[in-house]
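Lab meeting prep.
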Amino acid sequence: MKTLFDTNVILDVLLDRSPFADDAAYLLSKVEQSEITGFVCATTITTINYLATKALGSKSASLHINSLLSLFVIAPVNRLVLENAASLKFKDFEDAVLHEAALHAGAKYIVTRNSIDFKKAKLPVFEPREFINALESLKNKG
């Protein structure tokens, strides 16, 4: 189950943002257990490094980045991804880049806390709780 996680979901775990952290941590545990093949956009790594360095210092930020790199497949951002994102009619360019990176990397789903900004997505987009419910539903059918 190839799933790209938006930056906000990763930050929910790293910053322990209540009430979102529990659902996000549950999904990341599914990535850790190889029940989900987790992807993050290359821009997620740079954004988290920037924010973590400011909040926690460079040493701690480096530990977080290394942890993410060991856990997730990185969806690259290249010229084609950026050109395709620029042609989309997304409200937020960053979300369009994330969407196109997910498509080009072969992800089948996107998990985000701002699904409203992905109305024009070509991939199914879920809020974390919705995705957990979908996973449970699939498990119960199997």
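Slide two material, second protein:
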Amino acid sequence: MLRPVAKWSPLAITVFAMCTSFATYFGMYAFRKPFTVAAYESATAIGAVVDFKIAIVIAQVLGYATSKFIGIKVISELRPGVRFRMLVGLVGLAWLALLGFALCKDASWSLLFLFLNGLPLGMVWGLVFSYLEGRKTTELLGAALCTSFIVASGVVKSVGAWLIQDQGLSEYWMPFATGAVFLPGLILGGWLMEKIPPPSKEDIAMRTQRAPMTKAERRAFFQKYAPGLLALIFCYVGITIYRDFRDNFALELWTNLGYGDAPSVFTLAELPIAVLTLVMLALTMFVRKNRTAFLLYLWLILAGSLIVGGSTIAFQAGVLPGAWWMILIGAGLYIIYIPYNAILFERLIAALGSVANVGFLMYLADAWGYAGSVLTLLYRNFGQGKLSWLNFFIKMSYAVSLVCCAATMIAIVYFYRKIKQVPVLGAA
């Protein structure tokens, strides 16, 4: 008979946690991203002024952003006993919204159902990461979790494109059907995550205790480190807008580059990026000192910002082919994006010696990031409607590179000074 997971070796528990969290979050993407691979060319514009696809992407992102604002409170105050039931309920609501999207014939109802689809999904990350934070192997666990959404974003789009192109499914039923394909794996992964034991005494000694935060505690923590946190959030807002645009309009970008008829490109282009980020984060697990690791992440984020800008210059100069440019900017953006979603705030809390949780900081950043994404889509439709998807994205690449470089340099200077004032305790 199989021993309880809590009695397994630390290595076995780590592998188990990596696999279960990967499967769970991978499955969530099947409910969030497949609709973006459809062009909806036959749909009429909303109010005759907003492109239908831009409108439904805005609707979903607005729901997702709203969820992040709600999550600042809900996820930061989350207690372990309700996590699995909450996960199943949230995903179930998102799936029902996709059914409504498939059945409705009115464009206005399509907006409502995509908003309702995004609304519950925004809290899934916080639920999943709450099983992983505060451990000495959180870098490795976070790498697996983040690899899931890099790979899943491409895989679910490839499945969605296959359902439309090879199986003859309509663009409206495809998102619901894609969700059905991945739902069993998501539920199994979530149920198995419940078996992951809590952080050990050694974990707590190395990474500080993680506990629910009250409103007063959240306010006090933010006010204490406001300048540095604002710089980090500003950088994250920029890269979230960039990443979300690249993800939602991958079909249009790849089509502009001449790869629109190859569904596999969505998956194949993301695989080397997933491997790179997994190896990068896994290696930082061996940096024991939290303050050293945190500052190392900031320098990596700066490097990622330079890759985005530098590869775009090379692409425009004709030195870099379009496919390699998409891969390199993907690598650059995920070198920035992944630390935020996996370990940056984890190491910051530990380096500062604070009793807090990653959920609060992550949802604070995420909320403004996705709000910025909505504003960018509105600007694209009303302010830059005549500009091609590719040219708009090129301009965005330069802007994000500059913003992230500047914000990260401010954060490096601020937190270097702050962390030096914290007494060195354990692995701090």
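Talking points for slide two:
The mean pLDDT is 85.
The chain has 18 helices and no strands.
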